[in-house]
Amino acid sequence: MSRQQQESQGVVLTGYHSNAELLPKIGPRAPVSCPPAQVQEPAMPRTGHYTVQQNQNTHPADGSGPSATEGGTKTSTTDPPSLLNPSAASSPRSQPSFSPKPGSSPRHSPSPKSRPRPRTPCLRSNSQDSLDELEMDDYWKEVENITSSGGGAGRGDAGGEGEVPEEEQQKIPEEGEQEEAWLTEAGLARLFDDSLAADQDQEEDSAVFLSTLTRSQAAAVERRVTTLQQTLLRRRNRQHVPDVRDIFRPPEKHEEPIELKGESENGQKDITSAETETELNVEVAFSEQALTYRDNHQRAKVTASPNSPDDKLPNFKLLRDKTGQTRIGDLSPLDMKKVRRLVLVESTALFDTAGIDLKADKPVKVKTKESGLFGVPLATLLEQDHRRAPGTKVPLILQRLINHIEEEGLDTEGLLRIPGVATRVKLLCQEFETSFYDGTFPWQQLKQHDAASLLKLFIRELPLPLLTVEYLNAFFAVNKLPTKKQQLQALNLLILLLPEANRDTLKALVEFFHRVIDHQDKNKMTLNNVSVVMAPNIFMFKGFRSKVTEQQEFSMATSTAHIVRLLIRYQNLLWTIPKFIMTQVRQQNMESHRKQYKERAVRKLLKKMTTDKPSEKAVPEESSQGFIRVQAPQFSKVSMAVQLTGELQAADVLTRFLSQDSSVAVEQEELCLYEIGGNIKERCLDGETYMKDLFELNPTAEWVIRAVHR
């Protein structure tokens, strides 16, 4: 052998094998809420090794050496093709090689005889830019812990007690059924249901809603109306269904498409800066920005790679809006209803730009417990809690577990990753059920890792997933979007679609995870570590593993960990309402006022109409002189005049009010300045809202100070 041939010899890693088969096997899940007690042997550490073969024919110059199946050294088993992440549908370069392969995963281990002695594990990567294979190993350890503790049905098992048979939950919808459900949820049932055509209020509401949509939002509605229309014509052969061409009339030659403020500017900005831009533009619809990105990259023939090995989590930030940032919970229920309808259409339009046709699953009917703590629906838990603590938004049991873990200290190494003792967790679960509400539970005896295991058990045992059956597929599909910015935008919209109880509970969790990560120097739990450990607990709800194939489970591992990673990292951005949605809500309110005014004009005489314009409120004289009148009906100083200046913010108004009324016994953080009326129903203002800019946007609003419970 020549010297050159000797130097070209190398080593090929052909597969990864673990000792998962040596771990104790678990029988079927017992039909109880809490996990079945088990007598555990001392935990065998799950380790693994790579199969190494010497490559005698390495030719780096042309890469034409024989393959493992055509020549050279062969292993005893063939290596199946690598499993693609769900995001591969949108990118040929999907998740990097740390995604487990069916032939090299913890579930596919060689026989004990052929397994060599475990090697010393490598040090963990400190980078939080991407998930490496060692960090994903924590994911599979967590899956094993869930299965061994009885916290999740194994593959092929029927799931927990009381579940409806799987066939009923996975019923395939009829043709057009999903489009019909989508339009109904968006409040646009009139577009396909003739019986609602005579409902004047419904028709006007739909007309107002449609008049505020962007081009991409309108296209999403039109696409589903067209599909359903064709289905109905085939099914019933009825010709008098509303024609989509009458609903979405294309602009005449002399007309120009309506553009939201800043749209063209943002479009050019996205073209030039693309993924390196870290400022999130929330003034232009996300779907419009995605269209610009797609068109530009198609022309440039650029292939997006959202999950490449060196991917980054940019330091995204919102552009400061002088009219104030609107967070979830700041708006009245009436305006939140409008927000939800708009967000449903916008999120669908955003996924449409990437060619992702979301098929929402119908809500499933699952028999559930009517009382208790574990395995109880969120709505039932909160109903129980409201009788003890009115206004509770997050289940008391979850709040108390989080508080206990934090009181004991977040420096405990392996917090959330190291499981508690299964038999002890089982007993604690039963004790919680009987003594939590009585206040007799011995919290001082609850260990850190046991408390963390109970917290994870609570999430897994929810009868329906925390991210809901309807939108779980949408959360999975986030990884298919081509850029991190679009993924973040999609998550923002999906969180707005979640029911209030699910949304508030999820926020409490990710805030807690963030506080755990703040102590990573001591507890060794980085953003990636927490994400991979919590992903199976959030996404593997009761009976989940009996509903997916093993291949699907592998492909979702890294995807779900990535979604949890985004939820934790960008929580301060995700629980906000984008400004373009707020602009559309204001437009709808103004359009409704105009229609109400026209109705009154028809019913009343012209003279009376000129003196009775409730929707066209006159601007107060004080406001015309540069002042606003701030009301405070809950306090002794019921009102005060405030001069508008360019630098006056909402927080300054509250500070001035507290300085003038010494009888107020609440802190400024417990007060909120509300914008009421005009083109908004009610909105709690961000402290950094510039009052003069907001007054110019809504000059007929009233300004009221109230105590608020956050």
UniProtKB/TrEMBL annotation:
Biased composition regions of type Polar residues, renumbered to the chain: 50-59, 66-79
UniProt biased composition (Low complexity): 80-112
GO molecular function: GTPase activator activity
Short name of any one Pfam family annotated for the protein: RhoGAP
Chain intervals for the UniProt region annotation (Disordered): 23-178
Composition skew (Gly residues), residue ranges: 149-162
Coiled coil: none
Domain Rho-GAP, residue spans: 376-575
Signal peptide: none
Keywords, comma-separated and alphabetical: GTPase activation
UniProt keyword annotation of Cell inner membrane present: no
InterPro entries cross-referenced by the UniProt entry: RHG40/28/18_ubiquitin, Rho_GTPase_activation_prot, RhoGAP_dom
Domain of life: Eukaryota
Function: GTPase activator for the Rho-type GTPases by converting them to an inactive GDP-bound state.
Protein name: Rho-GAP domain-containing protein
Origin species: Pagothenia borchgrevinki
